[in-house]
Every structure is written in structure tokens, then in C-alpha cells.
Amino acid sequence: MKIFSSDRSELMEVTALEIRDGSLVVKGKVFGSMPMNAVLTPEQARSGLSLLTPRTFWFLITLPFRRARRVRTGVQA
User: Fold this and answer.
1) Could you tell me if residue 20 is inside a domain?
2) How far apart are the C-alpha atoms of 43 and 11, rounded to whole Å?
């Protein structure tokens, strides 16, 4: 899975999700070369839930079933 920045450049490539000591470990590479392991603890996951609105929650549930939008190149007048 790849995560992109707002300008569509690759920010992170996630290679694995693991459960370790009751936390979620996200393994991957940042900017295509730097290995990284990020840890999401239960406390941080709970605090992240406060960021979700009903609209955002619905979007996350339906995201895997949506089609990708085409990226437009060039300037429109």
C-alpha cells in the first residue's frame, strides 16, 4: 500500500502491519528508501477516534469500494 502527499508524490510505502505487545506496528519505507517502523498504541488509537466525524467515518468504510479519480495534468483556462 502506498501513501501519497497532496502533490501525489509517494510519501510512504507500507509493506506490513503487525501486532506486537498489544500495539499495531506499521512497517514500510519513507520517501522510497528510508526504512521505518511506526507504532500505534491503543491510547493513541482511541485519541484518533476523536478526529472522525460521521461523514469521515462513512468515507473510510466505503473507500475500498470507490474508483480512483484520474489526475488531471495541465492548466485549464
Assistant:
1) yes
2) 25
